[in-house]
Amino acid sequence: MTNAVKPASYRTHTFLYLLAVYIIWGSTYLGIKFATESVPPFLLSALRFFLAGCILLGIGYWKERSIPAWQQIRAAIFVGVLLIGVGNTTVALAVHYMPSGLVALIVAAMPAWFMGLDWAFFSKKKPSLLTILGIVLGFLGLFLLFNPFSAAHATRSFPLWPIPVIVTGSICWATGSLFVQRLPMPAQMTSTAIQMLAGAVFSLLVSFCLEPGAWSTLPGMSQRSLLAYIYLVMIGSLVGYTSYSWLTRNAPPRLTATYAYVNPVVAMFLGWAVGNEVIDSMVGVSAAIVIAGVVLMTLKK
User: Fold this and answer.
1) pLDDT profile of the chain (301 residues), mean per 10
2) Which pLDDT value is given to residue 300?
3) Potential cystine with 267: which of 29, 61, 209, 299 (Cβ 3.0-4.6 Å)?
């Protein structure tokens, strides 16, 4: 009976956590957009994950009753800096300057970084022909969307320099996610809390260096930015990131990476419906090509 129940419970947990990551993370792009209207992105990430990390650390200690070894703490700090300190904060920076739906579309290429890094440094498993075709198709869609040689480039209302920033963050995010199953990590909630706190400290240090006067923006924070911040902490971080952390430890990496082709759909819809972002025919076609490519990357899994 125990053996029969356990797989069913695992499948249920996997489905629920995937659904949370699919929907919640798709909505956080617009939430970050609204929050950074008042607060600079690095300081926002620091405050967001510091509060969420403190809350989760208390919950983790109460439920798990375990104190991690120093080796486990170091591993969680390392992963937290990669995932949150670099990965998530670069997204916050990009969303501040670009439409949230387009940033989500660039992040949709995440499975390509997952598989490429996994092949080169971890499992050494060569991608299939279908996967390679999906990677090529996905990057073709991104090129069509941001083609600097097109006539539309001159009329764009946003810069393109955040794109390599997002790519750097995506590579760090994929690397941290792949390390999670290979390092001695603390118990689930405690591990996630330490990762959040490590990412928050890293983001705060970067904010001190790159965002002079950032703290002076807090008293003038608008109601919309404040509500977005609360949503990012309570839902985006505590629920969304905790769900993702569980998936990185318990689900196959390629299954975890499938959130990348649901998030852009949610983000682009919310950006259009709530954030007044423009979705023209070229954006629609490019998005369809990117998402089709990501589906091909993960189809066999």
Assistant:
1) 56 87 90 94 95 92 88 96 95 93 87 85 82 87 79 71 93 92 90 95 96 94 95 90 83 75 86 86 86 78 55
2) 62
3) 29
pLDDT at 295: 81
Residue pair 279/98 in contact by the 8 Å Cβ criterion = no
Both tokens of 9, joined, read 């419970």
Tell which residue, 263, 240, 276, 89, has the closest CA to residue 170: 89
Chain CA centroid to CA 159, Å: 21
d(CA 78, CA 36): 26
Q: Among residues 291, 296, 255, 253, which one has the least CA distance to residue 129? A: 296
* Cα–Cα dist 255/280, whole Å: 31
CA angle 113, 119, 120 (to 5 degrees): 90
Return the biggest CA–CA distance within the chain.
65
Domain-wise residue ranges, the chain: 16-298
The Cα–Cα gap between 297 and 105 comes to 15
